[in-house]
Amino acid sequence: MRQDTLQEPTGTKVAASVPKPATAAHEPPTRQPVRQAIAQAASLAKAAEERARDRQHAKGKHTARERLDLLFDSDSFEEIGRFAGGDIAGGKAGSAVITGFGLVYGRKVAVYAQDFSVRGGTLGQAEGRKICRLMDLAMEIGVPIVALIDSGGARIQEGVAALTQYGHIFRKTCQASGFVPQISLILGPCAGGAVYCPALTDLIIMTRENSNMFVTGPDVVKAATGEVISMDELGGGQVHASTSGVAHYLGADEADAIDYARTVLAYLPANANESAPVYAYASGHAERQAAKRLATIIPENDRQPYDVLDVIRALVDYGEFVQVQELFAPSAVVGFACLEGHPVGLVANQPLVNAGSLDVDSSEKVARFVRLCDAFNLPVITLVDTPGYKPGADQEHAGIIRRGAKVIYAYANAQVPLVTVVLRKAFGGSYIVMGSKSIGADMNFAWPSSQIAVLGAQGAVNIIHRRDLQKAKESGEDVEALRAQLVADYEVTTVNANLSQEMGEIDAMIDPEQTREAVAGALRTLAFKRRQRLVDKHHGNQPL
């Protein structure tokens, strides 16, 4: 007999007893009443998004909510304070900023997105309070903060009250700095004091179109100096990505910029108290082939350039390398990669540009990136091939002493695992500052062809043997032949890495093919390295 029926004595079947609704069978079920205000709010929200689409799409821009859909995993965004700062009865849907939390590759991230379709995305008291509340929550639970910037700046109608909110945001950003990763995407205008909100964060991402940052706009510049300049020429994405170094990535469009933010977040931990995520990885034939390829990349002629990116891609998992500030100070290369599934930071000299020498811009680029890695527990792998600091009056006058010292400060204070490989040249002060053992690196390796010395052979011979060369010239001898012989002798006796190895400054001389395994082995050894407070102080006084 079926379980859902009962047998009556007469043999007829009746339905099993089930609870009956109190209402008559022909009446529809009772629904929860909908308050008039809720219906009005939903209507306002829908109309606001429609207006935003009309205004933003006409400019080739996404709406704030469309940007959130691009940033977060599907259906993971949870908004907070949707109608804060609004007036539902008065027909105002909310403020000019959206705040909330979502998932990026399954990991929680906080976001605030300025909505240019609402009062030009300007910031007033309501917007400032929403942003500060979000940042407080993000710090309490320890998750990254992403800012989507598209704003006309402080709301003039609110005067000093609006400016005060910027001060609150500045302070919150400084409090969060070094504790949770902070990323700013500039997807529209960002001018005046507002520029310092993103300037205080870890990474700034801009786009080729519609993205602008400047303290004083073109009209103010013209009035003050008479110079006529466009917004893009003054503070567009291309300018800040390649000339000023303010932007760390230049997206082809909004989708590309947001995808870069998602990618970077995949390499970083949620906060400074956690380790970076670990990804599944299995070494195979491709890695063995890449290791062999390392031996063929660097030319035998030490003056011939090569692309250090070829070395990096042959060294890291799947050849995947995410550059930071790719267009700025190209004589140095920095970025994120994985080694045996563990995220790391890579720093390298680029021999294709100025022979890989350090200048004022590349020094700041390297220092800033090492500090970022140290703040968020990413080991730093340094690949060295540099003849030294770039010479010239322009460099001295631009502050190479002060700005070059930032590299020293960054490496000397870093307490994450530091592994350095000298690929070819490491001369003078640049040998010391680029992750040498004496400045604090944990493990240092060198390739057999590497040259480590105070000065390159040519320059050293010209100084040391100046009189010998002069005498040879006066006596009619072949000066160039003598110079070549002296250079060869100097390279054999002084410039090679043997002296550094004998002093313990180099832990091992490795063949290029062994580089990946040597670095990975060093990181496995250093996996349990812990931070130590060496002296009792508030903080150091970094050269700025």
From TrEMBL:
Residues 28-280 form the CoA carboxyltransferase N-terminal domain. Residues 285-525 form the CoA carboxyltransferase C-terminal domain. Residues 1-63 are annotated as: Disordered. It comes from the Bacteria. Pfam families: Carboxyl_trans. PANTHER family: PROPIONYL-COA CARBOXYLASE BETA CHAIN, PROPIONYL-COA CARBOXYLASE BETA CHAIN, MITOCHONDRIAL. This is Methylmalonyl-CoA carboxyltransferase. It comes from Bombiscardovia nodaiensis.
